[in-house]
Write a structure and sequence with these properties.
The protein is α+β, with helices and mostly antiparallel strands. The protein is built from 9 helices and 14 strands. The longest helix has 24 residues.
Length: 301
């Protein structure tokens, strides 16, 4: 279960002849078009995985279009905030816009997830569906759905630990743990699933203290799974009196902590974490996922 927060990706594009170019804080990507395929790819390492995204898109429709894309992001990379899923969502939506094609939401989620698997090697469809749909999203047995809530959205704070970890590293760690002791690891997964199902009910009712309590329980299991870090554990201890609950985001191994502050405690919370060399990313729930506006796409993650 996840929620799309109001931090995101903006991708702008202009038509150009015979090539695809991407520029972002992560570097540059350039490839020429040969029919509906990319050729002579030149790319910085962090953008290179997005090349197959366009190759797959152009192959599906057996046509291609040249474009020059600029990406701006307010999501720190490798921070557990689904930044690669948000970029994939923005780029695929932009590609569809230029190709003048439309696909159902279900197909868009599947294509973004396929791109994520190519980038991360392993992963969950949760980030992909959340980037497309916005709001609260649930995933069970690979099937996703939107979750409607009563009343106002809660105040959400995301705290960046400034520790960076690739998703592929932590998912590989979990796989090794599963291979070593499948019974005990699957028991942890079952406990976490029970918490998620209980959290679904609390979210639907708008019971944010209840949601926070379940987040705290979930964090304990994430620690046992080995995807938390000493710095994040210390951070969570430091803020416990000011929040209803907190837990790591994404695959863990570093990255961010998401928390639900108690009423009027956001400012005190920010002051509290400053001395830990962390930063607060004030956010809110975005009920809109990826969308188009002219020749640009916006995506919340």
């Amino acid at each position: 279960m996840a929620a799309a927060i109001n931090r995101g990706i903006e991708a702008r594009a202009a038509p150009i002849d015979g090539r695809v170019e991407i520029r972002s804080e992560l570097g540059k990507f350039q490839a020429s078009l040969e029919g509906h395929r990319l050729a002579r790819v030149q790319s910085d390492s962090l953008l290179k995985p997005f090349g197959p995204l366009f190759s797959n898109l152009f192959t599906r429709f057996r046509k291609a279009v040249g474009m020059k894309i600029e990406i701006r992001s307010s999501i720190p990379e490798q921070s557990g905030l689904a930044s690669s899923a948000a970029v994939s969502a923005a780029l695929i939506r932009l590609g569809l816009l230029f190709l003048e094609e439309k696909v159902p939401v279900e197909t868009l989620v599947d294509w973004i997830y396929e791109s994520e698997i190519e980038i991360q090697k392993r992963g969950s469809i949760l980030g992909s569906s959340c980037s497309v749909l916005g709001g609260f999203v649930t995933v069970k047995n690979g099937k996703w759905g939107r979750l409607d809530i009563q009343g106002k959205n809660p105040e959400i704070l995301v705290i960046d630990s400034r520790e960076r970890c690739a998703t592929s590293k932590t998912t590989a760690h979990v796989k090794r743990k599963l291979d070593r002791d499948r019974k005990a690891t699957e028991a942890l997964f079952d406990e976490m699933d029970d918490i998620a199902q209980a959290g679904k009910k609390q979210i639907e009712e708008g019971n944010w203290p209840g949601v926070g309590s379940l987040m705290n329980q979930n964090q304990v299991y994430l620690q046992r799974l080995g995807v938390s870090t000493p710095k994040i554990d210390s951070l969570i201890r430091e803020i416990k009196d000011w929040v209803w609950g907190s837990k790591i985001t994404g695959a863990g191994g570093g990255g961010c902590v998401v928390c639900i502050p108690k009423e009027k405690q956001g400012k005190k919370l920010a002051e509290r974490v400053a001395h830990l060399n962390c930063r607060v990313l004030k956010s809110e729930i975005s009920r809109v996922g990826v969308r188009s506006a002219g020749r640009r796409t916006l995506c919340k993650a």
